[in-house]
Write a structure and sequence with these properties.
Chain A: Keywords: Cytoplasmic vesicle, Golgi apparatus, Membrane, Protein transport, Transport. Chain A: It comes from Oncorhynchus tshawytscha. The structure holds two protein chains of two kinds. By secondary structure, chain A is α+β, with helices and mostly antiparallel strands. Chain A contains 36 helices and eleven strands. The radius of gyration of chain A is 39 Å and the shape is elongated. The relative contact order of chain A is 0.03. Helix content of chain B is 44%, strand content 21%. Chain B has helices spanning 24-39, 76-94, 99-104, 106-116, 127-141, 154-163, 172-176, and strands at 3-8, 13-18, 48-51, 54-61, 64-70, 117-118, 121-122, 144-145, 148-149. In chain B, the strands form three sheets. Chain B has a five-stranded antiparallel sheet with strand order 2-1-5-4-3, with helices on both faces. In chain B, a hairpin with a 2-residue loop joins strand 8 (144-145) and strand 9 (148-149). In chain B, helix 4 packs across helix 5. Chain B is globular and about 55 Å long. Classes of the chains: A alpha+beta, B alpha+beta.
Chain lengths: 824, 186
């Protein structure tokens, strides 16, 4: 059998392959040869074969059949064999395979070998890939070597110990005695690796940290070593660009950081040396800056005095001006870490940081952006925003979403004026509109409704933006919502802030209809625009056109659009008298952090996105006569009457979508009407309304410690009240009424109405049904929420209407027997 | 340090050293993705990037990329110095090292790396010590041929040549190319 080809020859041959297939063929041929060679247990060439296998493995070919051969090589007596064997083990084996455990014995023997290079191989392999079992078995050997006087072995043993500790933390104690005089070594290799070992131990165990700090007095030792390094003259062996052993310096600084953290004494002991390093280190080359960087990190992390901290930040500031982009990157990263604690110091470098936004490097730009947002405050908002918006225009898409969110947040916190705020939002929407996060659409809408005096300006600007570009969905959605809301302001040309544009109703409708048909619009956007068109039916005069559009979409394939169109159609046909009220101007929504829209989502079974739900908040006003009735009840003006819809919440079939719509309304909050003659802008009680949503699940809470009471019992109709406290607002009492009927006939068209004194606020949610079955076969339940901020005694007037045995019945009653716990 | 990769500008892997336990499949995936990411970087960009939850430090020397993945507490700038030190060691050993040297003598590149770093940390901060250790270990592996111990490292060979008053060899790779005196065991 001819000798297997040499490694270098194989490499040369494989490199001549012109295609992947050719290479694969060569490899397969050689693998076959190697395999048969392994089978023959050839000792002479095993080393060569494994080496070739390792080469092929690096090219990406499977080499697992060589694993056992590596073990045989390790067991061999020849150094060459061992070297390749250990290399093979490190490359081909990993701790998942049981095979590696077979190595343990070999390694143990080699750790005690007479030749230090063999011992070195064993230590290296163990420290690189030793599993926890192996580490457990061999920790003793490593510990022994840690105490040897041979510095070649000692330094390797220290790093091997680090690995052992990482794998089996419980063994840390074992190495403690050996660390006693590690730092008195002169050999830099041993010093360096010892510091690494001590760092690992201190990081892992607070007890160890304390021990080293207090008992071993590590800090003075380290300070001394560091000082010697800096003060000593030129040492050719460890010199790097004029600095003495920068690797060791950096490691010592890092260990000092850990020792000084949250410890005043240690921090004080190192103040001087830190200042010395910070001021004396040569900064022309990367090495010097590496040391300064570590020093800055240490200064910022320990309890250093303020002068030192300012020095550190100034070093970072100088880094920012460095030509080397690596240094600038590192500076930005560190400043980001310190901006919270040393805000003012970092502010001084703001202009440099902002300049970094224009850097070519992606990582630097990202860091600069994050830092810029952290530095925005009330004083610099205008200037900073200009820069950031410019950045938004020109940055890569990966940044746009974060930058847009950041701009919104900053604008919300520090906007100097409403107009500026709206302008900024417009700018973001038009430049990065498609990258804006989904939740910003409802947030923006909420913001816009709040800036009442800017409505005309806002809608005008948004309309103009739509004319330019309808591809950015968030922009389109906000715009269509606004046009739906404030379209009347748009056509009447009321804008004060800028030159009002002349727009006709038809032009506006053209734009909105354009959105409906455009391929660029997502289904969500289409929903927005359809609703906007519908809303304009009460603000514009071209109602017929709107009717036509709406009826077209009632046969749309998109289920969402279809449902809306059908409901709106029904609104035109059957409930036209309700249309003005339904489509009224929205009340100002108070910001309730994240509670608002998401709550609505939960209670509303619909899959609509959150904003359209808030659109259903517009309140219903019942015909005026009923309102007056209740107004009369409790003596005219000191009463806030409550009117609620009489419709069940259960979704009805096709024709009943309108009921669904109004069912939504009552779910999202029973309307309250201010005792004013016209149904003008109703009083909004946003926290109340939204609380109402979150109370739905409370229906079944068992928290009622308040006893129930019978509020009304007459003619076979009995109404019981049960109480709960609403979370999170303790001023709200949640009353559930249970209406039962003991007569033989059902009570149909049952409506429960209630009124409370003026200091209270009442909210009626929709009833479970309007039929009270006969003979107690079931009950009608309904939830009332009473807000009682002044904790006055609760009183209520109730009005009941129903049809019994064909004839209508109506009754009024006062409920005064509320248990004290319900209003205290 | 979690791992170090050396790869060419075409994305061919020349050396891989892993200091964390990962399956072969994972290693391949990481290598592929990281190589792609680094090769996509423009020359003017900085040497650091965030990749997954690691910091990656890379530097190009001629046609080879040296790429290290370090942990969040590690100092990026000093890692650049570690990379540079390794290149210096290779350079001293091979004499004006080039990519071909590393291709044809990959096992030696590993030996040198393992003498410099252990478990991802530097064992010795003195260039001289590391080189001396490698040379001594090399001597253990060289085989007497024709009664003369053939040196295996370039620096040792230069030393020997100067001792014997012979011209210094031009370069390691030139020496390693098929010549009738090829003496390597592997």
């Amino acid at each position: 059998m001819p000798a297997p080809i040499r490694l270098r020859e194989l490499i040369r041959t494989i490199r001549t392959a012109r295609t992947q297939a050719e290479e694969r063929e060569m490899i397969q041929k050689e693998c076959a040869a190697i395999r048969s060679s392994f089978r023959e247990e050839d000792n002479t060439y095993r080393c060569r074969n494994v080496a070739k296998l390792l080469y092929m493995h690096m090219l990406g070919y499977p080499a697992h059949f060589g694993q056992l051969e590596c073990l045989k090589l390790i067991a061999s007596q020849k150094f060459t064999d061992k070297r390749i064997g250990y290399l093979g083990a490190m490359l081909l084996l990993d701790e998942r395979q049981d095979v590696h455990l077979l190595m343990t014995n070999c390694i143990k023997n080699d750790l005690n070998h007479s030749t230090q290079y063999v011992q070195g191989l064993a230590l290296c392999t163990l420290g690189c890939m030793g599993s926890s079992e192996m580490c457990r078995d061999l920790a003793g050997e490593v510990e022994k070597l840690l105490k040897t006087s041979n510095s070649y072995l000692r330094k390797k043993a220290a790093l091997c110990a680090v690995h052992v500790i990482r794998k089996v933390p419980e063994l840390m104690e074992m190495f403690l005695p050996a660390t006693k005089n590690l730092l008195s070594e002169k050999n830099h290799g041993v010093l360096h690796t010892s510091v690494v070992l001590l760092t690992e131990m201190c990081e892992r165990s607070p007890d160890m940290l304390l021990h080293f700090r207090k008992v071993c007095l590590l800090v003075p030792q380290l300070v001394r070593i560091l000082k010697n390094l800096i003060m000593s003259g030129y040492s050719p062996e460890h010199d790097v660009s004029g600095i003495s052993d920068p690797f060791l310096q950096v490691r010592i600084l890092r260990l000092l950081r850990i020792l000084g953290r949250s410890d005043d004494d240690s921090s004080e002991a190192m103040n001087d040396i830190l200042a010395q390093v910070a001021t004396n280190t040569e900064t022309s080359k990367n090495v010097g800056n590496a040391i300064l960087y570590e020093t800055v990190l240490t200064i910022m992390d320990i309890k250093s005095e303020s002068g030192l901290r300012v020095l550190a930040i100034n070093i970072l500031g100088r880094f920012l001006l460095n030509n080397d982009k690596n240094i600038r990157y590192v500076a930005l990263t560190s400043l980001l870490k310190t901006v919270q604690t040393d805000h003012n110091a970092v502010q001084r470098h703001r202009s440099t940081i902002v300049d970094c936004l224009k850097d070519l490097d992606v990582s630097i730009k990202r860091r600069a952006m994050e830092l810029s947002f952290a530095l925005v405050n009330g004083n610099n908002i205008r200037g900073m925003m200009k820069e950031l918006l410019y950045f938004l225009d020109s940055c890569d898409p990966e940044f746009k979403a974060d930058c847009a969110s950041g701009v919104f947040l900053a604008a919300e916190k520090y906007a100097p004026s409403k107009r500026w705020h709206i302008d900024t939002i417009m700018r973001v929407l038009t430049t990065a509109g498609s990258y804006v996060r989904d939740d910003s659409v409802p947030n923006l809408i909420q913001l816009i409704t709040n800036s009442v005096e800017m409505h005309a300006y806002t809608v005008q600007r948004l309309y103009k933006a739509l004319l330019d570009d309808i591809s950015q969905q968030p922009l389109v959605q906000v715009s269509s919502w606004c046009i739906g809301e404030y379209g009347d302001l748009l056509v009447s040309g009321q804008c004060e802030e800028e030159e009002p544009i002349q727009v006709t109703e038809d032009e506006v409708l053209d734009v909105l209809e354009g959105l409906l048909v455009s391929n660029l619009s997502t289904p969500v956007t289409r929903g927005y625009s359809l609703t906007a068109i519908m809303k304009l039916s009460t603000r514009f005069s071209s109602v017929n056109r709107i009717k036509k559009v709406v009826s077209i979409y009632s046969s749309s394939i998109d289920v969402e659009l279809q449902q809306r169109a059908v409901e709106y159609n029904a609104l035109f046909k059957k409930y036209d008298h309700m249309r003005p009220a339904l489509l009224e101007r929205m009340p100002i929504m108070e910001k309730t952090a994240s509670n608002g829209p998401t709550e609505i989502m939960q209670t509303n079974g619909e899959t609509e996105p959150s904003v359209p739900d808030t659109k259903h908040l517009p309140l219903v006003t019942q015909p005026a006569n009923q309102a007056n009735d209740l107004l009369d009840l409790l003596g005219g003006n000191d009463v806030v009457p409550v009117i609620q819809t009489t419709l069940p919440t259960k979704p009805a079939s096709a024709g009943g979508e309108l009921l669904d719509l109004l069912g939504d309304l009552s779910l999202t909050g029973g309307p309250t009407v201010v005792p004013a003659p016209a149904p003008s802008v109703p009083v909004s009680q946003p926290p109340f309304l939204l609380d109402g949503l979150s109370s739905q699940p409370l229906f079944n809470d068992t928290s009622a410690a308040i006893p129930p009471m019978t509020a009304y019992s007459k003619n076979g109709l009995k109404i019981e009240f049960t109480f709960e406290r609403a979370n999170p607002n303790p001023n709200i009492a949640v009353i559930t009424i249970h209406a039962t009927n003991t007569t033989e006939a059902d009570m149909t068209e049952f409506v429960f109405q209630a009124a409370v004194p003026k200091t209270f606020q009442l909210q009626l949610l929709s009833p479970s049904s309007n039929i009270v079955p006969a003979l107690n076969q079931g009950s009608v339940t309904q939830v009332i929420r009473v807000l009682n901020p002044q904790k006055q005694q609760l009183r209520m007037r109730v009005k009941l209407t129903y049809t019994h045995k064909g004839s209508p019945v109506q009754d009024l009653a006062e409920v005064n027997n509320f248990p004290p716990q319900s209003w205290q | 340090m979690q791992f170090m990769l050396l790869f060419s500008r075409q994305g061919k892997l020349r050396l891989q050293k892993w200091y964390v336990p990962l399956s072969d499949k994972e290693k391949k995936k990481i290598t592929r993705e990281l190589v792609q990411t680094v090769l996509a970087r423009k020359p003017k960009m900085c040497s650091f990037l965030e990749w997954r939850d690691l910091k990656v430090v890379y530097k190009r020397y001629a046609s080879l990329y040296f790429c290290c993945a370090i942990e969040n507490q590690d100092n990026e700038l000093i890692t650049l110095e570690i990379i540079h030190r390794y290149v210096e060691l290779l350079d001293k050993y091979f004499g004006s090292v080039c990519e071909l040297d590393i291709i044809f003598n990959f096992e030696k590149a590993y030996f040198i790396l393992d003498e410099f770093l252990l478990g991802g940390e530097a064992q010795d901060t003195s260039k001289k010590n590391v080189l001396k250790a490698i040379e001594q270990a090399d001597l253990l592996r060289s085989v007497p041929l024709h009664g003369v111990i053939q040196p295996v490292s370039y620096s040792a060979w230069c030393e020997l040549a100067s001792q014997h008053g012979v011209n210094q060899p031009v370069s390691y790779s030139a020496w390693c190319e098929p010549a009738s005196q090829s003496v390597s065991m592997v």
